[in-house]
Amino acid sequence: MAVGFLGLGVMGLPMARNLARHYPLTVWNRSTSKYALLTDAENITLAETPLQVVEVSDIIFIMLFDADAIDAVLTDEVKRALRGKTVVNSTSVTVEYSQKLGETIHDVFGGDFLEMPVSGSKIPAEQGHLVGLMAGEADVAERVRPLLHPLTSAAIYCGPLGSGLKAKYAANTFATILAAGVAETMHFAQALGLDLEAFGRVLNASPMASAYSRGKVAKIQDGDWEAQASVGVCCYSARLIEAAAEEAGASLPLMRTCKGLYDEAMEGGLGEEDMVAVIKTIAKRKSG
């Protein structure tokens, strides 16, 4: 099985490396500087264009930033080369966009399309412990499933196109609120004069602790703001969640508060830092 990968960002790069350990992989990225990070990986061919990736691959994974990035890559020429091939899109987009893209690839250009956003950030991606949220035709999902073992700890079929994205919106709501909660809690502990190393052990030993919360606590303790999931990505995700909630008629008061906080962090120049860096924005606010 020849596999292709389009997009070598924070998530795409480790995903591609994990796939290359098991399958011949052809990759493309807009910035060729990322290719230097793949020099020690076997089974990888570097393509000069997205078309080259599609032409030599049976299954093509896409992990780009947004719908505009996908449109720039999937030109009509590239789409025509998708006949008889399968596209697996892991980019976070709107449900409407995913459904339209899937219909276009299948009905117009004769390819198969699977929606598969992932739940998880940089470290789970590196570890191959993402959760794949598959949506589309069930037979396509089952055909792709065996290839997902290097990427995921679980690959869950959620239903027709749009279902995977909806599951991601809901999961990201939890992750966003939890990250903001950890940041606010650690800020409060610091304001109370507590030793953050000791208090971190309190949180990590508590029934509320998880691998996610422990990771965020450690980043705050270490002053490590390197992005696993950045403030900028969080703001983009929050806009998708807000739009989906409005369409569904769902009230998300906590998420609305967190979105305002992350928008403020973005405006404060923290867009490239990890989402838990929102603690800096919290610390600048006055009490009350």
Automatic annotation (TrEMBL):
Q: Which InterPro entries match?
A: 3-OH-isobutyrate_DH-rel_CS, 6-PGluconate_DH-like_C_sf, 6PGD_dom2, 6PGDH_NADP-bd, HIBADH-like_NADP-bd, HIBADH-related, HIBADH-related_NP60_sf, NAD(P)-bd_dom_sf
Keyword NAD (UniProt): yes
3-hydroxyisobutyrate dehydrogenase-like NAD-binding domain sequence ranges: 162-281
Q: Name all 6-phosphogluconate dehydrogenase NADP-binding domain ranges.
A: 3-157
Q: Which UniProt keywords apply?
A: NAD, Oxidoreductase
Asked if the record carries the keyword Metal-binding, the reply is: no
The Swiss-Prot or TrEMBL record describes its family as follows: Belongs to the HIBADH-related family. NP60 subfamily.
What is the name listed in the Swiss-Prot or TrEMBL entry for this protein? Answer: 6-phosphogluconate dehydrogenase
Q: What is the lineage of its organism?
A: Eukaryota, Fungi, Dikarya, Ascomycota, Pezizomycotina
